[in-house]
Amino acid sequence: MPELPEVHTTIEGLKKVIVGKTIKGVWSDFHIGAKYKNKPNIKNEKYFHKFKKIVVGSKIKGLTRKGKNILIHLENPKDQIFEYTIVVHMKMTGCLMYKKDNKEKYIHLAFTLSDKNYLLLSDLRKFASVVIVETAKLSSHEAIKGLGPDPLDPKFGAKDFFEILHRKKKTPIKSALLDQGAIAGIGNIYSDEILWSVGIHPFSRADKIPKNKFLAMFKATQNILRFSIKHGGDSKSDYRNAFGEKGGFQNFHKVYGKKKEKCPKRGCGGIIGRIVVRGRSAHFCPKHQVLYEGQ
């Protein structure tokens, strides 16, 4: 699933090419079949028609991010009372791309833009979510309101990081890092890399980890996320950026996807293992990652 660095990379790419463009048309086949009847997203055919009526003729005025959500802000056309924001969550296999044609594989949503190019959502497994929200009500929308702070927000510090995660009683730290209501944007890949880098076992109880370890974890979180952004995100799976190109962070994995390989930490000699923590896989080194347990 695209995580914070991949979403950030997508947005920064799209900002260069779609801001100021007008949406001239929109097509989707997400809504084929009755499975999503009455659902509040474009997979519901009635909702899609409402969505289409709002977005066609609107100008794209900016893009921002909230957690793993891409927010496409639309300029208010003269015939609309409200301004709107398109909220896209790419889920497992989604990629949002700017292309000269719509010939990409697995396209399930296509916006035709005023420059005669396309904004395309490619999604092999069709899990992606797309909704339209009144911009003034965005913060209270279901997709946004429950999200925690952003780990790269300049206003978010080590103290906040510690206080939020440390109070999650009896919660494995792997699960705490994945909780989007605690801190938004971290997923399986980056949680594994963060915990490996600071030597904390994924089953460690969040409320039993020493404060100094949390401070190291906060620093590692920011450094790893920024490093991945620098390298265009992670394309070990399906992710491609706004222009259909792969990122490079997968070339720097220390632990994620490295089961049975030798731990790359200097002088460690451990063998990377894989466990399941509350239904999510976790890769770790059993030798140098310390398990902090309660009494």
Concise structural overview:
The protein has 295 residues and is an alpha+beta fold. The chain has helices spanning 4-18, 45-55, 142-145, 158-166, 173-178, 188-198, 211-230, and strands at residues 23-28, 59-66, 69-75, 84-89, 94-99, 107-113, 118-123, 129-134, 273-277, 280-284.
Structure in words:
There is one protein chain. By secondary structure, this protein is of the alpha+beta class. The chain folds into two domains: 4-145, N-terminal domain of MutM-like DNA repair proteins; 158-243 and 250-284, Helicase, Ruva Protein, domain 3 (Orthogonal Bundle), CATH 1.10.8. It has seven helices and ten strands. The strands form three sheets. A four-stranded antiparallel sheet has the order 1-6-7-5, with helices on one face.
Global Rg: 20 Å
**Largest beta-sheet details:** 4 strands, antiparallel
Give the tally of β-strands.
Answer: 10
- The CATH architecture assignment of the largest domain turns out to be Alpha-Beta Barrel
Compressed to H and E, one letter per element, the order equals HEHEEEEEEEHHHHHEE
Question: What value does the average pLDDT take?
Answer: 96
End-to-end CA span? 35 Å
Number of helices: 7
Relevant CATH superfamily of the largest domain: MutM-like, N-terminal
Integer count of domains = 2
Shape: elongated
CATH fold topology of the largest domain: N-terminal domain of MutM-like DNA repair proteins
Strand content: 15-25%
* Structural class estimated from helices and strands: alpha+beta
Model regions low in confidence, pLDDT < 50 over at least 5 residues: none
Give the CATH class of the largest domain. Alpha Beta
Main sheet: strand order: 1-6-7-5
